[in-house]
Design brief:
Layout: E1 19-24, H1 29-42, E2 50-55, H2 61-73, E3 79-85, H3 88-92, E4 97-100, H4 116-133, E5 139-142, H5 147-156, E6 166-168, H6 171-185, E7 192-193, E8 196-198, E9 206-208, E10 213-214, E11 217-218, H7 219-225, H8 230-242, H9 244-252, H10 258-273, E12 281-286, E13 298-306, E14 309-312, H11 320-342
Parallel strand pairs: 1-2, 1-4, 2-3, 4-5, 5-6
Antiparallel strand pairs: 7-10, 8-9, 10-11, 12-13, 13-14
Helix pairs in contact: 1-10, 4-5, 5-11, 6-8
The structure holds nicotinamide-adenine-dinucleotide and (2S)-2-hydroxybutanedioic acid.
Nicotinamide-adenine-dinucleotide binds next to α1.
């Protein structure tokens, strides 16, 4: 642990105990793009002071320390402290929020599944650290890929923490789907509602427009008027969204960063503060068995959030096409789970 650039402040009249937020891979690209906005209130809202625990590998420790200095220079009123750690137990001690970002990103030509073995070890260690010392109200979003299976893995090593506190980031896919639909319908993003992303954060995911609306009208109807029928949805929209990560890697020369950071902030903020009105979003959450997804598997679903809980939207009708797309993505999740099991990486909770 390094000395915090912030002096210790006692709590007392007029002071609120800050919420501890642990960010892994804090000196990496997404970590760096996330922590300043978290300090500015974009993670837990404008009324919640935070204390940041930055977890990094020894090789990136100096960079994380530099980030801590810059955070100090931001003079963020909500930021009550920053500490840098190399030890997961110390970093998660007392944490209420975990942004589990640290992992190797994929490079050109790799699928996210190629990262399974490389990154899986990280999440077992961190799951155990959470189990040992995180706060009662701990919740985490896993960003590091393959995000769904890493969340499952971390939860398997934290049997004393409710399973639903380990979620995976599919909000970026949700945003991508909303933005692509808005562009195709020549509408504003704010006019789009009811998009859902199902399954794995991978090319097998199913971005679903069947319940979506644009300006209050069924999206499929609006698209059909623009000569964009189901064939366009299947052959252009779905692959565009599902393969957007690879497109970014190809065009940008590296995997998505600021859009991923933005999505992670939105994921946690909505989870903690609630989704607005009747609107839903998409999150990778442990299945409760809904829609034929085996219980426990961390799959993306449409969810609403209230009182700090994410609930899978119940009772949506799925046509045969949707059902088979979800099934295919869930099959991939089951294969990933079997692979980490074979590698002997799963913890005591299955
Ligand atoms: P990066 O290489 O820039 O940063 C990763 C950081 O993690 C590095 O600083 C590294 O030192 C650190 N790290 C590695 N192992 C660690 C450990 N055990 N403990 C603490 N820190 C550790 O990568 P990035 O661009 O920030 O991407 C991070 C991850 O996010 C990748 O796995 C990437 O594929 C994934 N990602 C997910 C989504 C999503 O939507 N779910 C989107 C974009 C990227
Ligand atoms: C993304 O969706 O942009 C990330 O998961 C990075 C990747 O490997 O695709």
């Amino acid at each position: 642990m390094s000395a915090s650039p912030f002096p210790d402040r006692p709590t007392g009249p007029g002071r609120t105990v800050p919420t501890t937020v642990t960010v892994t891979g804090a000196a990496g690209q997404i970590g760096y793009a996330t922590v300043f906005r978290a300090a500015a209130g974009d993670l837990l809202g404008p009324d919640t002071p935070i204390r940041l625990h930055l977890l990094e590998l020894p090789a990136a420790r100096r960079a994380a320390e530099g980030t801590a200095l810059e955070l100090q220079d931001g003079a963020f009123p909500l930021l009550h402290g920053v500490e840098v750690f190399e030890d997961a137990d110390a970093a998660f001690d007392g944490a209420s929020v975990g942004l589990l970002i640290g992992a190797r990103p994929r490079a050109q030509g790799m699928e996210r599944a190629d990262l399974l073995e490389a990154n899986a070890g990280i999440f077992s260690v961190q799951g155990r650290a959470v189990n040992r010392g995180a706060a009662e109200d701990f919740r985490a979003v896993v960003v590091g890929n393959p995000a769904n299976t890493n969340a499952y893995l971390a939860a398997s090593h934290a049997p004393d923490v409710p399973r639903e506190r380990f979620t995976a980031l599919t909000r970026l896919d949700h945003h991508r789907a909303v933005a692509q639909l808005a562009a195709a319908a020549d509408a504003l993003v704010g006019e789009v509602d009811g998009v859902a992303v199902w399954g794995n954060h991978s090319a097998s995911q199913y971005p679903d427009l069947t319940h979506a609306t644009v300006g209050g009208r069924p999206a499929l109807e609006v698209l059909a008027e623009r000569d964009l029928g189901l064939e366009w949805v299947d052959s252009t929209f779905i692959p565009r969204v599902a393969r957007r990560g690879a497109e970014i890697i190809d065009v940008r020369g590296g995997s998505s960063v600021a859009s991923a950071a933005h999505a992670a902030l939105c994921h946690v903020r909505d989870w903690v503060l609630g989704t607005p009105g009747a609107a839903w979003t998409s999150m990778g959450v442990p299945s409760d068995g809904s829609y034929g997804v085996p219980e426990g598997l961390v799959s993306s679903f449409p969810v609403t959030c209230r009182d700090g809980r994410a609930r899978i939207v119940p009772g949506l009708e799925l046509d045969r096409f949707s059902g088979s797309r979800i099934e295919a993505s869930v099959r991939e999740l089951e294969e990933e789970r079997a692979a980490v099991q074979q590698l002997g990486l799963l913890g005591p909770r299955r």
